[in-house]
Design a protein that fits this description.
Number of helices: 11
Distance between the termini: 11 Å
CATH architecture of the largest domain: Orthogonal Bundle
Largest sheet: 6 strands, antiparallel
Shape: globular
Strand content: 15-25%
CATH superfamily of the largest domain: Transferase(Phosphotransferase) domain 1
Helix content: 25-40%
Radius of gyration: 23 Å
Structural class: alpha+beta
Strand order of the largest sheet: 1-2-3-4-6-5
Number of domains: 3
CATH class of the largest domain: Mainly Alpha
Amino acid sequence: MSAARRQPVTAQILGGRYRLEERIASGGMGTVWAAHDETLDRQVAVKVLNEGLSHDERFVERFRREALTAAGLAHPNIAGVFDYGEEEGRPYIVMELLHGETLAERIRREGAMEPSLAADVGSDIAGALADAHLHGLVHRDIKPANVMVTERGDVKVMDFGIAASAAGGTGLTGTGMVMGTARYLSPEQASGGTATPASDIYSLGAVLYELLTGQPAFERPTPVATAMAHVNDPVQPIREVRPEVPSDLAALVERCLAKDPADRPGSAAEVAAALRAEAPVRAEAQTLVLPVPSSATLELPAPEPGATSGGPVAPAKPSARPRPAWLSRRTLVPAAVVAVLLAVILTVIALSGSDLTVQVPAFRGKSRAQASALATKLGLHAVFRGRTSSRRPGIVVNQHPKAGTQIAAGADVVLFVSRGAGTGGSASSSPAPSPAPQPSPPAHDHGHHEKPEPDRHHHRKPKPHGH
C-alpha cells in the first residue's frame, strides 16, 4: 500500500465508535485512516475496503479473512487486529496503530544492516511465523514491506490478507495460482504449488539475504523471470557479496533459501533460536545504571526494551546469552547499605516526577570522547561501531536512535564512528534495529503504513501506521 497525503476528513464514525481523523495510506485494496475509538478512548488504525471492490465477494471475503486470521493470533511481533465491521456495505478492519516504518523503507534509505541487527530483526520475524504456524497458518507473503519496525524497535509482522491454512488453501485462489511477491517467493509457490510453513522460512531467508547484502537474492527484468530464478538459479553466496557477514549466519540464511523444502531448517522456531544465537546484543542492555547524588552508582536489571508507556511490552525472549556481569559478583552488601541506596533512588524518582525516559541528543559530528561523555552525563550507554566514511576518523557519523527520540534511561545508543575512507572491518553487534539503501520492492497492498519523509521519523513528528 502506497503512502497517501495525510488529510483531515469530515467527521465520519464507523460502527458507532470509530471516528476517522486522517488518511494515512492508500492502495489498490483499501485505505487506512488514523482514527479514535470513542468507546475505549484510544487511537487506532482503520483499514476500509475500497468502494470499487466492496461489491466483489472475493475481495470482501479476503478482507474478512485478513481480519479473522490476524485477530486469532496474539504475539508481540504480530500487529494486532481489534475489530471487524461493515458500514453501508463497505467492510473495515480496526487495527493497532503503529508509529514507525517498514523494513523496505529502511533498507531503501540505508542499505545493508549490521549482521547482528539483521539477525535480531530476523529472530523476531521468525518468532512471529512460529506462532502463526503453531496456529495452522502460513503467511505466504513475508517481505520487507510487510514488516514494521516501530519507534521503540519492536518488530511487527503485518498483512495476513493472503494467509492460508497450513493444511490447505484459503479457498480464494485457484489451483496453480501464484500468491506472493516475486522477490521473496519460494520455489514451490513460484511453481504454483501449495505454500507450507517451509515456504515462509524461504521468504524469511530472502528477506534476511537482502538485509545482510543490501540487494535481493534474485532480481530479474520481470516479476515472472524473478519468480523463475527462485526455482532454477543458484543464489550468490552471501559472503561473496559481503565478506564480513559471519559464516554461521550466512550458512543459516542460505539453508533457508534451499530449493528443496526438506533441506531448509525444520521450523521457524528453529530459525528464531539460531538467529538469537547470532544476535547476542541485548545482553548489553540488561543493566541499567541510575545516577544518585553521590559518587556511587547502583546497577539494577533494566526493563525489557519497549517497557516505557505507550504500547504493549514484548515479553523477554528465552536465550543462552551471557548474563550481565553484576549477576556473577560474589560481593556481599550489608542490608542497611542496600536500603539506603534504594531509598535514595526512590527519592530521585519521586522528585523528578518522570518515567525515567531520556531524550536522545544529537551525537553526529562529535568526537568519540565527546559523545561518550555526553551519553554518560545523560545516563545513556554508548555502544560504538566503526563505519567507513569520508569524515575524519573518530567522528560520529550516524546514530541510532535518532536525535529527539525518547528512550529509557540506561538504554543503549549505537554510535557509528568514522574509520576513514576505504577501510574495511567486520560488523559488530548493536542493540536495536538500524537498517539501510536499496530499491524498494514493487508496490503491493499491505494496508497499514505510509511512506516516510526522507529523514527518519525520529527527526519529525512520528507518523502513524496502521497494522
